[in-house]
Design brief:
- There is one protein chain.
- By secondary structure, this protein is α/β, with parallel strands linked by helices.
- About 20% of the residues lie in helices and about 30% in strands.
- It is built from seven helices and 15 strands.
- A seven-stranded mixed β-sheet has the order 9-8-7-10-11-15-12, with helices on both faces. A four-stranded antiparallel β-sheet has the order 2-1-6-5, covered by helices on one side.
- Helix 3 links the parallel strand 7 and strand 8.
- The relative contact order is 0.11.
- The C terminus is likely disordered.
Length: about 280
């Protein structure tokens, strides 16, 4: 991810850390301030500093300011929707197999966490979001964290992905929806040949319905997985796992197409060919 080289700018994210390693993520705004447990901290006192600098509150307490990591931003950024955890985003990005220049369709923008991860690969993302407040917040998060040359590759479409008009084909599709099976029948006509789909859901009933619908619409389901994360304490001769871990947060479904996209045939009155007629669900 990008790191400021000329100092923190108005509008960018900064991670503020106290001597006890307590952390606060700020989106800088000229003239703004934040009340901390150690006094009032002025945003203007941070703007222009470089990562690793020390800044003082009005009570004389010190903080160190850092350029936040992607994980810092995902976990602490302003949000309205439930976030996708960094561990899950990393797995989804791997399953999507992204390369610069690819065109991605995303449904379920939320706070923009997965979007930021995808855009960092130099891809173009069209994201469809029903709620205007989520769309506004997500776009602001993306623009605050990513440099302009990456955030400019984002197009936000307001509406329901089942209904909105979408131009052209997509190389990859990422869904973070409560009911992804409603849009799955449309996906094959939106994907290039050899396209990939990754779906994020939180409970096993959603997994069952999504996998059933993928297979009945000529997709091969490569995997269904959950990612568990456990940190370790390393302190001299003491090496042990943390007592707490990040357990289940969601399921990741990865699928790919099984045959060329449906085309119109002379014997079907112009209707697209239904691949489920010819392909037996696995």
């Amino acid at each position: 991810m990008s790191r400021p080289t000329q100092g923190f700018q108005d509008g960018s994210f900064v991670l503020v850390v106290d001597p006890k390693d307590r952390r606060l993520l700020l989106r800088l705004e000229r003239g703004a301030s934040v009340n901390t447990h150690r006094g009032l901290l002025l945003h203007d006192s941070i703007i222009g500093l470089v990562s690793g600098s020390t800044v003082m509150t009005n009570s004389g307490s010190s903080f160190v300011v850092y350029a936040p990591s992607f994980a810092d931003v995902v976990l602490e950024m302003p949000r309205g929707a439930q976030i996708i955890y960094p561990k899950d985003i990393a797995a989804m990005l791997g399953e999507l197999s992204l390369q610069p220049g690819l065109r991605i369709l995303e449904a379920g923008f939320g706070s923009g966490a997965l979007t930021m991860g995808m855009l960092s690969y130099g891809v173009k993302v069209v994201t469809v979001e029903k709620r205007e407040d989520f769309a506004s917040r997500g776009r602001k998060n993306v623009e605050s964290f990513l440099p302009l040359e990456l955030s400019a590759n984002l197009t936000v479409v307001h509406g329901d992905v089942v209904e909105v008009e979408l131009e052209g084909l997509f190389d990859r599709i990422a869904l973070d929806l409560l009911d992804p099976w409603l849009v799955i029948p449309r996906l094959r006509s939106l994907l290039v040949d050899n396209g990939r789909v990754v779906i994020y859901v939180t409970n096993i009933n959603q997994v069952q319905e999504a996998v059933r619908t993928l297979r009945s619409n000529a997709f091969i389901v490569d995997s269904v997985k959950e990612i568990l994360e456990r940190s370790w304490v390393v302190n001299g001769d003491v090496v042990r796992p943390e007592q707490k871990m990040v357990g289940h947060t969601g399921f990741i479904i990865s699928a790919k197409t099984t045959q060329p996209r449906p085309t119109k045939r002379a014997d079907d009155s112009g209707l697209p060919h239904d691949p489920s007629i010819d392909v037996t669900p696995l």
